[in-house]
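JOB MANIFEST
job_type = single_chain_structure
chain_count = 1
residues = 285
[input]
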Amino acid sequence: MPTLSEQKLTDYRRETFRRDPARRLKSKQDAVAFVNQRGFVFFWPNKGVTLPSLWTAVAGDRPVADEHDDPGHVTWGWKDELLDKRVWYYARVIRKRNSIISYQDLPHFYALSPNYGDPDEDYLMQYEQGLLTQESKLVYEALLKEGPLDSISLRKASRLSNPENTGRFNKALESLQVEFKVLPTRISEAGAWHYAFVYDLTHRYYPQLVEQAGKISEPLARQQLLTDYYRSLGAATRQEAGKLFGWRPDDIARTFQALFDHGVLVDDATVENGKDPVVALKELL
């Protein structure tokens, strides 16, 4: 059974997560390069899920601060300023958390989403099959008809503006983002706080994405994303990978086997002082 030293894994993640103070991100350009290098990251770290985040790469391996003047919150400004620059894909997608995805990996995620053929029609098929809620349908159709809308206007156009519908609207918006149907594209000064996301349909904002994803098979898409995951972490259990992506057990098993066969990953490795066997990058062993 191959063994990976605990220090080697720590040093590897210190680099890929940018935990070293000397390697911290200093600018928006650094942030874009970081996302392109990693493929996909969280905006903020999420408890129980190990993955690089923009916050950690800027502020270090510490909790997100409550104080608004914390230097780490520069990431919030970068995110807002870059929303309409088309330098990456930002939405609530991976584990239903705020995620940033590079343009290299975006078509692979989209290839695994429930979007096929004509996005202007496919949502109706999902709805008829019970795979799309009525609220999600209303939100999607409002954007389809009206074009990009800030969240305040979108609630009204979706006929979900009553206070009792707040939870239903938010859940619908989250579900549509997870399925790569909708994304925030800029900031508006709408509402009492003069701060609201403007949402648009993913396929309309990125018209080339449907064609790009159509050329990628689901097995190859999974292999690309799982490879990038392990290139960020170095080693992780099968369960950790499964938890992140949420793929069906047989799909993730076949993806692992393909990467074992290709010599990218090694199965049944151990990390010093670790309890469970892990899958590791072959180059680390």
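[summary]
The CA atoms of residues 26 and 249 lie 40 Å apart.
The first strand starts at residue 3 and ends at 4.
exit_status = 0
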